[in-house]
Amino acid sequence: MNISMKVPPSRPVVLCLSGHDPSGGAGLQADIEALLAQGCHAAPTVTALTVQDTQNVRDFRVLDREWVLAQAQAVIADLPVSAVKLGMLGSVEMVDTVIELLLQLPGIPLVCDPVLRAGGGGALGQDDVGFALRERLLPLALIATPNLPEARLLAELPEGSADQCAARLLPHCRHLLITGGHGDENEIHNRLYLRDGSRHDFTCPRLPGSYHGSGCTLASALAGRLALGEELVSAVRSALDYTWRTLRDAEQPGQGQYVPRRLPLDFCG
């Protein structure tokens, strides 16, 4: 008797290039969990190792470019990549390494989360990484997702508003999502700036506390929605809604910031 097995369709693959956070709150673990929650398969490539906890970053080491190239190229040769998510790169050499990889994936949507500082203020890159990101990497991205402090660093506007930062950065990238939450306003304002000059505002209630890994969660969820074929504005809305829910349900496993709960408690894969 021939028994045929029904093979489920493959989940979209998202190639993630980011750092490893041993606390599990941010970095590649955040990417993996957020992408699982979207129904995607995460293919994580480690760009850097960090010494950090839920309070701050103490040190980091960027991996040799040959190791990063080997990891990512093994994935590219084997799996059908539907989207790419970038997180911590840490050095100008790693920016150039990622550009070399992206040239092998023409037409694949790229979500760039320009990770420059940890939530606790610790640096996650050399001082010249922001310039290299803005000038050489953002032009390859479908969308960049900086928070307002990161947008100010990229735009070189220490006191700039979101609108002022967007005006400086949009010539370098197609679309830009600047997230709020770093002031004391009662509502969080997240602003999506499109290359055609239009703007979409998304607001949500401020939640108490501070959070470790929220930016990684948002960017990965957005990459997942794009990998699933969702239109950009709708994908941004879906990713923001999902991220807010993970913060609402966050837990405090250590002595520092809250960690988003990206998967339901009964998740079994």
From TrEMBL:
Spell out the PANTHER family in the cross-references.
Answer: HYDROXYMETHYLPYRIMIDINE_PHOSPHOMETHYLPYRIMIDINE KINASE THI20-RELATED (PTHR20858:SF17), PHOSPHOMETHYLPYRIMIDINE KINASE (PTHR20858)
The catalytic activity of this protein is classed by the Enzyme Commission as: 2.7.1.49
Q: Report the enzyme's class at the first EC level.
A: transferase
Q: What is this protein called?
A: hydroxymethylpyrimidine kinase
Q: In which pathway does it act?
A: Cofactor biosynthesis; thiamine diphosphate biosynthesis
A GO CC term attached to the entry = cytosol
List, for all copies, the residue spans of the domain called Pyridoxamine kinase/Phosphomethylpyrimidine kinase.
21-257
A biological process from GO = thiamine biosynthetic process
Is the keyword Disulfide bond assigned to this protein? Answer: no
Kindly list the GO molecular function terms attached to this UniProt entry.
Answer: hydroxymethylpyrimidine kinase activity; phosphomethylpyrimidine kinase activity
